[in-house]
Write a structure and sequence with these properties.
3 copies of one chain form a homotrimer. With 303 residues, chain A is an alpha/beta fold. Chain A folds into 2 domains: 135 residues, Aspartate/ornithine carbamoyltransferase (Rossmann fold); 154 residues, Aspartate/ornithine carbamoyltransferase (Rossmann fold). In chain A, helix 5 packs across helix 9. The first copy, chain A, starts with 13 loop residues before the first helix and ends with a helix. Chains in contact: A-B, A-C, B-C. Chains A, B, C: Pathway: Pyrimidine metabolism; UMP biosynthesis via de novo pathway; (S)-dihydroorotate from bicarbonate: step 2/3. Chains A, B, C: This is Aspartate carbamoyltransferase. Chains A, B, C: Heterooligomer of catalytic and regulatory chains.
Chain lengths: 303, 303, 303
């Protein structure tokens, strides 16, 4: 990595990504380190069970511990403290900071004020690089990262997770198919960037034609809030749901992923199939974050 | 124990119970183990200071650590995630899961979806087996578990704690007296089950006649919400309050218990008497939960 | 210390304070102890990011761990439990208790009911002794504690922090200047006590004349809520704000402090000057609380 901070998946070269995934695989295989005495500061300015618990687990699995800023409504933030001040206080407590914030750019701003490593755990419509890394890890474990065909389906317009993953995949030899209703297509600028990166990108409004080609199908939720009309939502969402029947047309080794939580876009009968990898995917957050934290805390030690 | 999960006190034989209480007594006497690296997942779908803090303490006293799902209103649950999905994610983080949930049957359901041990820490009107075990531990430490006479007083209609304890006591040679207002008597089905188990059960509307016989008096709160009429509540609740004066008619070695929190059903002047064991009872949650966790994590290790 | 509990800075002699600060300096310099197995109970009956996270960090830096009562709205307190009952339960979980409570006198009350050390982390308008100790530590590190001139500016009427610090400074050879609007002067009884202690105390309505003499300038926030009239607030608050320009009239080695969070009473351009010590001050909470906890847990061990 070129930086002490991890703000965006974009800052990671292919070699960086592979180094992190290799290290994650070691932790997954039982590798142990002893970071007794190291503290990770958890600064979550908006709720996030999944990500917060995963970082908490990763740090504790490394032998270290965490200190939590607590919910914003019980914090100094409510008294009008700036983000810059909050993180400058927390850097006195912790050896690294994980930051989740509703405003795009928050992690970059925070990183400019502190001397400990900052890890972006999601900044509004911005980046969430550890999600991208655990997605890549899951794809690599199941399908490899080269010469694969990936389908990404659902809300492609607002999905931060999807944009980062698509961008990261351009570093690898992956064909990408985007499946969504017309109203939730990839934004023009994301499409443009993908084309500029030389990605092999195709868009579809239905899964049917492309499904048999896919090594990986990444499903995301279509949110009710995106539709003014409830009937339109129901009709659209219904077309982008999958169940065990849908997957009969897929390759036997198709890997189905989802960033979770799901509501009903993947039926429960898929859980019983060999295609289901979304729970593994969530679990992979632990070794991936262990690898990252172990690496970034080392850099911190060297300062 | 016949199961990897602890859902109900009913699944514990007398021998199981005694094994757990014996082990708890060892921890109480200073026994130490080193579970460094073991993580307990805390999934509390409704608030519970007492139980959560007690499990957190027990796991840390074993040398392990905990990871907390956090409050439900900041979790994926709010986005519509099912209980089955939530626990399947958490099993990737933790070596065992403690679950508190407002719906009866939640712990059983959760246990069907995960491979790590699930401990029920209360599921609505259902079971709360570790409360029962710490109650039994406290009775055993103070009065023994055989050839004793136990009085249980207060709200016997809605009290989950009381039903489990009464049922568990049928495994031992304990006479049971139930003292409550007519409107808050033991439910018919609980009475039936106790009779079926061959328990020596008697019901009273007042404490006075039975008090001198008791080795243990277990007091529970009568909740205002149970009464449509404030005056009726006050009158009824007043009759089931005890103070130091009340206890003058009791045996010198009467053990008074209460699951806490109390409001005013036990007057503060009882705290100064040798009868008061309700704080010890709360503290006993730690060695009892240490014993359980140590045992269940061993089973987990063997899998 | 004469007591097992730390309720008020008043109970600390000059020798006590110096012993704690000396020990804090050792921790600051990298001294390590191993309190594995010791648990600190965090009982925060009102929100406090800064103080809670600092105690949490301090205990973990000592090698120990913490157990948290959680927010009051999810606790037994909401069911009507008394403070005395709550702390008597928590003493069964933890080796020492940190208590923050909205009511003055709460820490004293709590300390009367439990056998583990209680540390007051703020009780309403009452005391907050660890804040005073970290303030003294910061002053000592930067200006020494003898033969210094300290200015305290802002809301001197309601500021608990300010009253404790002023009182503590009377044990040392420090001149004290109080700078505030007329309506927010030191309360009469605080002034009286300071005079009785033989303190060299002067009051001002402006900073200008006294600034060049100061070794330390302690700034506090003037709260909007203190003023019925928004315009009056703006005018008053504006006069007690400092920026880099203001400080050109100060000594080169002036130490500027603030208990944080700040809103705008210290402009961001001060952060870049050598005067800025308010973030260090927050960080100093960790070694100071490590020193206190290490000392009080030793006393606990001896019991």
């Amino acid at each position: 990595m070129r930086h002490d901070h991890l703000i965006s998946a974009r800052q990671l070269s292919r070699a960086d990504v592979e180094a992190v995934l290799d290290r994650a695989a070691e932790f997954d295989a039982g590798e142990r380190v002893d970071r007794t005495g190291d503290l990770l500061g958890l600064c979550f300015f908006e709720p996030s069970t999944r990500t917060k618990m995963s970082f908490d687990t990763a740090m504790k699995r490394l032998g270290g511990d965490t200190v939590d800023m607590g919910p914003v409504d019980s914090s100094s933030v409510k008294k009008g403290e700036s983000l810059a001040d909050t993180v400058r206080v927390v850097e006195g407590y912790a050896d690294a900071i994980v930051l989740r914030h509703p405003s795009e750019g928050a992690a970059t701003l925070a990183s400019e004020f502190v001397d400990v490593p900052v890890i972006n755990a999601g900044d509004g419509a911005g980046q969430h690089p550890t999600q991208t890394l655990l997605d890549l890890y899951t794809i690599r474990e199941n399908a490899g990262l080269d010469d694969i065909t990936v389908g990404i389906m659902g809300d492609l317009k607002y999905g931060r997770t999807v944009h980062s993953l698509a961008e990261a995949l351009t570093e690898f030899d992956a064909g990408q198919h985007f499946i969504s209703p017309e109203s939730l297509r990839l934004p023009r600028n994301v499409r443009y960037d993908l084309h500029e990166s030389g990605a092999d990108v195709r868009e579809h409004t239905g899964l049917e034609t492309v499904l048999p080609e896919l090594d990986v199908l990444y499903v995301t939720r279509i949110q009710r809030e995106r539709f003014a009309d409830e009937n339109e939502y129901r009709q659209v969402a219904g077309e982008y749901r999958i169940d065990a029947g849908t997957l009969e047309a897929a390759r036997d080794d198709l890997t189905v992923m989802h960033p979770l939580p799901r509501v009903d876009e993947i039926a429960a009968d898929v859980d019983e199939t060999d295609h289901a990898h979304y729970f593994d995917q969530a679990h992979n957050g632990v070794p991936v974050r262990m690898a990252l934290l172990d690496r970034m805390l080392d850099r911190g030690d060297r300062r």
